[in-house]
Amino acid sequence: CSATARSASVTAISMSPTGSPSRGSCGSIAPTGSS
Length: 35
Description:
Blueprint: H1 3-14, H2 26-33
């Protein structure tokens, strides 16, 4: 995970369909908010 992607991931976690605060798993967050 890159620092940039991580920043965007924080926002993705908020609007993630799962709603689980799993910041550790990049594979789940990256595709969720990374467009």
